[in-house]
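Why does residue order matter? Because the sequence determines the fold. Keep that principle in mind as you read this record.
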Amino acid sequence: MILGIDPGTTVMGYGLIHVQDNKLSLLNFGIIQLNKLANQPDKLKRILERLNGVISEYKPDEMAIEAPFFGKNVQSMLKLGRAQGVAIASCLNHNIPFEEYSPRRVKQAITGSGSASKEQVAAMLQTLLNFPEMPKYLDATDGLAVAVCHYFSKGVGEHNKAKGKGWVSFLTQNPNRLKK
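Structure:
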């Protein structure tokens, strides 16, 4: 089971998928509403409490999270990074490994285009996972998209994309190519 997270400071999306015999099935997806909370510490606490609840209920095996994109507003980036950090800490506290994916890579994995809109991603997921209606907030389908991207990427995200690459890996896999 894979938990996908689309971090946010007003709305955080999440999605859970189950994989069996290379078949994906939707377990749940939704949002953590944060816009009515007065300050950043309260928002971070809500993220932690809600994710701990989701993790306790579904017991995912792994977590995938969207990496923050680089914007012009440093304060927004700092807040988003904190939200992402709390989500990662929640998973690590439950001994769940995580991987990170760029927004462009998530869109590419789902639609074939790294510049796809939220609506295009949601429509493709609706077809792939066969859910009847679109959620009110597309942050929910964004969280789901990160989980599906993780599955399609075979767990190779930003943290471990270098595994299996480089000279050491090449020589390990091709010892006969090393001249002595």
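Residues 74-93 form the longest helix (20 residues).
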